[in-house]
Each structure stands twice: as C-alpha cells, then as structure tokens.
C-alpha cells in the first residue's frame, strides 16, 4: 500500500534527509542528489564497485535499479527473478497513482531514507 504522503511530518522528513545527505557527503566527499543516491543504491544492488567510465545508458539503468530497490523497502515493488544478463527483474506490488511532482520527490526521499535506515549508523 502506498504510504500516506500527506500524513508525513515535512519537518521530520527534511531533518532526516539533511542527516542522510550530510552522511553521504562526508563519506563520498560529494554533494549528493536524489539521482546520485539512487545510482549508489543501484551499484550496491548489483554488487558492483565504482566504475568511472560507464555509458549513459548503464548509469540510467543503475538509477532505475536503485529506484526499484528503494521502492522495495516500502513494499511497492518486488524482485521476481533475473534476466539472462543477471539483472534483477521487478514487478509492482501496488498500482502507483499519478502523483504531483512534489509527491513524487517525497515518495522517493521516503523510500531512500527507509533503505538507508538499516545501513547508516543512527544519528547522535
């Protein structure tokens, strides 16, 4: 089921997002964007290390992989197997409604935060 985005506390979400992006910036010495964070999640999902000369299509595929993995943490997608190249195949678990741009970003941020809840050390 899609989380009730209107019920989220915007200040709490902003605080958690700032903590996460600060942690990523310190760890990787770069200011992160949503796309770069999804790229990192995609790399992690595929068990890859950093590869500096990826084609644009490969980078886009990794961002999509990161999106599916992040959405999996909210129960919105599930892995259903792998293709011939060993890439995960994904299937939606719920129908996603059309969302306003702000709600799309909120949903992505919530999914990313949920993904990192088990990875990132708790803040002090």
In a nutshell, what does this entry contain?
The mean pLDDT is 91. The chain has 4 helices and 2 strands, in the order αααββα.
Question: Helices, strands, pairings?
Answer:
Elements: H1 10-28, H2 34-45, H3 56-73, E1 77-82, E2 88-92, H4 101-117
Antiparallel strand pairs: 1-2
Helix pairs in contact: 1-4, 2-3, 3-4
Task: Explain the overall architecture.
- With 124 residues, the protein is mainly alpha-helical.
- It is 53% helix and 9% strand.
- It has four helices and two strands.
- It has helices at 10-28, 34-45, 56-73, 101-117, and strands at residues 77-82, 88-92.
- It has a two-stranded antiparallel sheet with strand order 1-2.
- β1 and β2 (88-92) form a beta hairpin.
- α1 packs across α4 and α3 (56-73) crosses α4.
- The longest helix has 19 residues, at 10-28.
- The model has no long low-confidence stretch (mean pLDDT 91).
Order of neighbouring strands in the sheet with most strands: 1-2
Shape summary: globular
Radius of gyration: 15 Å
Task: Give, in order, the helices and strands.
Answer: HHHEEH
Number of strands: 2
Number of helices: 4
Question: What summary fits the major beta sheet?
Answer: 2 strands, antiparallel
Strand content: 5-15%
End-to-end CA span: 32 Å
């Amino acid at each position: 089921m899609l989380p009730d985005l209107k019920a989220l506390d915007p200040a709490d979400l902003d605080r958690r997002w700032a903590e996460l992006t600060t942690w990523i910036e310190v760890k990787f010495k770069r200011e992160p964007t949503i796309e770069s964070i999804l790229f990192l999640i995609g790399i992690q999902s595929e068990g890859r290390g950093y590869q500096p000369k990826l084609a644009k299509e490969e980078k886009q595929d990794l961002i999509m992989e990161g999106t599916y993995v992040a959405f999996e943490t909210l129960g919105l997608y599930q892995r259903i197997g792998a293709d011939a190249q060993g890439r995960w195949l994904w299937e939606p678990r719920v129908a996603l409604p059309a969302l306003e741009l702000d709600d799309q970003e909120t949903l992505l941020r919530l999914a990313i935060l949920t993904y990192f809840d088990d990875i990132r050390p708790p803040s002090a």
